[in-house]
Amino acid sequence: MLYPQQNEIRNLFDLSGVWDFQTDPRAVGETERWQLGVPDARPIAVPGSWNEQYADLYNYLGAAWYVREFHAPGGWRDQRVFVRVGSANYAAEVWVNGQKVGGHSGGHLPFECDITDTVAWDGPNTLAIRVENELKPTRVPAGNMPPRGGGVMAMMSGYPSTTYDFFPYAGLHRPVWLFAVPQTHITDIAVATEIDGTTGVIKLGVTQNGAGGAVTVTLRGNGGVHETRAVFQGERATAQITVPDARLWSTEDPHLYQATVTLVAAGGQVTDVYSLPVGIRTVQATAEGLLVNGKPVCLKGFGRHEDFFASGRGLNVPLLVKDYALLRWIGANSYRTSHYPYSEEEMMMADRQGLLIIDEIPVVSMTFEDGDANIAARLAQARRQLNELIARDKNHPSVIMWSVANEPMPPDMFKRFTGGGGPSPLDAVGHAFLKELVDLARALDATRPVTLVGMMGGPLDWLELADIVCINRYWGWYTQGGQLDAGLEMLARELDGLHAALGKPIIITEFGADTVAGLHSHPPKMFSEEYQTEFLAGYLDVAAARPFVIGLHVWNFADFQAVQSVNRVGGMNLKGVFTRQREPKMAAHMLRERWTRPARSS
Ligand code: BDP
Prior knowledge:
The protein is of the alpha+beta class. It folds into three domains: 17-133 and 169-174, Sandwich (Jelly Rolls), CATH 2.60.120.260; 186-278, Immunoglobulin-like (Sandwich), CATH 2.60.40; 296-360 and 401-595, Glycosidases (TIM Barrel), CATH 3.20.20.80. Helix content is 21%, strand content 30%. The chain is built from ten helices and 32 strands. A hairpin with a 2-residue loop joins strand 13 (186-196) and strand 14. Helix 8 runs parallel beside helix 9 (529-544) and helix 9 packs parallel to helix 10 (586-595). The protein binds beta-D-glucopyranuronic acid (BDP). Beta-D-glucopyranuronic acid binds at residues 165, 339, 406-407, 455, 472, 510, 555, 573, 575.
């Protein structure tokens, strides 16, 4: 799916702004024709999470309606017109002038509805989007799961009842566009790059919604222009461009060429044009490490969240720019889109600024204990999310690896977490689930490694499925709390054991300690800035002594909103090295000092 763009042929219109809004807890909207306008509207911002905009909506996750009017620009009359929603959490249905035009389920990923036959040209149109975010065991990620563990575990569970540690924000989280393309148009472009000596090889697969004709590709960049032409075989054409002395995309020099793809009909007239940035680079996982352009990279960075005051999970462009400035300031070169796909605007920023991204689907805290039907429903949903993510992000040079899961949970998880609890017959069910996703990612994209992120105590054969082993570890926090030395010893021992058993490079994709900004203690006590600093520095030291640890992502870049529970003061996860307002804690200065040292520092 292509990001909408404006050029000499294509057009678009941003529908972001203030919309009419009304919750629909009794599900009467559709029968009462709210598709044409809600009876008791209040204003709401799009993009944005509704939970952050009104106090009474904070915990509301049921259905709600967004409605606004728009005029279709007259100049678009002979084109195909679409409404495109960047992200609606969790499920959405769309109506134009009272007629249903499409929908989507799964959140975090874009969808578009062809409204060519519905749109009115001689007056205003009414666009209505019904969004709901009910937490259900059959969804990905799942919520309202049957209680497990009883006793103290039940006491510690949170509200709303997620299976995961971030707030289940709801609403239209990314821009809503109206866009127009020619009747016969480019529907997709897939770019893959290879390097042959000093020559860059760019392979493009172009798809159109018609047949015949040809495509020309013009590649500009690094002072040169390269051109090629290919003829369509039905709906598809494949083109190749070679670039001698290519300027490769890397984290140090994220050079982007610009490819312009032009659709030329059999009669010779130009029917469509689409331009996209292209970074020439390769990624490879070997037993030694992760190679970008054939050279090993060491990942320094974070797990993050799309999260901020007032905008919630909604796209917040100034925040995006600021966060990237902070990532550069601290010396990070990488992050994971924990635990769901981030905005397309964010991925474009990563391409431009040379960040290395582990791109993740929302398979977070997946359990395998509630029966075949629920597991099958979640697997089907996860497969859709993976298909959509790879379709959306396949052309981003910044994306160096797909992650198909974060912390899938084995039965008896809490016992295993602390070192007790043994294997279960259900481990095989989890293995089959994860293998299906890993295989799917590999089938959809042969150019990038695939991983999944394991939790403490997770089965070894789940980790074995990954090209690069990714693990989240909290020795010295959730276990050995307050005993940093003991925790670091556990970490060192476990890393050596894992490497001996699996023979693959390891990235520690999470490690961190909740920290109240401004709380100090000597000696370092849990929750103090000193404890966080020593905790993170200790992990960096243990990793630095082990060359097979090829990356460290601190949990978390910034404090973020989770659900309310006895574990989360004010509902906040405080493991950020920046506060939610983006002020650095002490640990941020330590990381900056280490990560901006000239030599390999991890
Ligand atoms: C890990 C999860 C992450 C949590 C983190 C924590 O992957 O989502 O926020 O722990 O507890 O288990 O802070």
